[in-house]
Amino acid sequence: MSNNENSSNLYIIDKDGNRLEHGYFGFVVMEFANEKEIFLDDRIENSNYYDTGHLGYKTKESDFLVYERRESLFPLIGLIIDSKNQNKIEKYLIHQFDYAQVYQHNQYSLVDDKVYGFKHIYPYPGEKYLKEYYSKFTSNPSLRNFNFDYHFSVLKRYTECSNLDGLEVLDVAAGDGSFLRRIKDAGANVVGFEPSNTETEEAEIKGVKLINEMFEPEGLEPEQKFDMVIAGNIFEHVPNPFDFMGKIKSVLKQDGFIFFQVPNDFNVFQLKYMELNDSSPWFVCPPEHLNYWDVEGARSFVKQCGFEVVHEEAQFPIEMFLLFGMDYRKQPELGKEAHTMRCNFEDAFSSDMNMLSLIYEKFIEAGIGRDYVAILRFVS
Question: Would the pLDDT of 54 be above 90?
């Protein structure tokens, strides 16, 4: 097999956007089932940049198959593949990555994973790289606190916990502690993780002491379990969402609740704007966002993870303004005006949050809304 043959089949790209040739960083290329395979093994020097959990081969230009090697996903499916030589791969999860909606962003490709049921970046950045990236992360200053007050009301209403006094609550990505502060003030015993140094410092000013690390169950007291876990806008950031949910489940009490929130991406308003303006998916932004769910994908994901959806609703569909002609993408100065109008709408229901929740519930039924928000109960 010549180097030219090898390089024409490699789909991994380095951090500078260059294709890697055979032999670089521990690639192994071999023949299997009449297809050229690529195995990115554990010996890679730059493991901070590359996901080492996959073995895959291209089937045609529009898609390729990948065998999942992460042990935590083995129980989902057992796969045996036999070639003429009776080669066997046992308990590997097979993925089909569809490139029908291909999008390339620097060294990353966006793939539609037919097993996971959502789109994600490939390859995922490594743990070392993400840890360093998020330790330096600083969010934009919040312009308002309504969302925290509103989501606190949603949390209490649909968990039927009007009194949080004495409940054990974990926030796996607490940011500056604003949401956790409200829960703490209601009498709950709270624990929060946050990898960002500056966000952790901001939380301490608010009176919430966080663990300045990415969430790991090992960072908790032995056998510590929680009645509720807050997981707001975190799953789009993690490289292995099923693994991450498994870690949460390991510290959640049976019949415990999760406040779950992810962006609703590739929603109908975004797709219509892209169609009318010949636009790329501007909301695809690795390495910050790695996973991309629409409403159906989010529902499927939480069901696969063993959760019952107690309640689901949307966040305000901000992309609607783009279709009104208020194109804040082309004219960024319009963004603040759109945000103010969104605030005016929500503030109109500040004394009737139940009605606002009903409106947002109807939005999510139609698949619209900037975020998918759900209260989940752990059932299995």
Answer: no
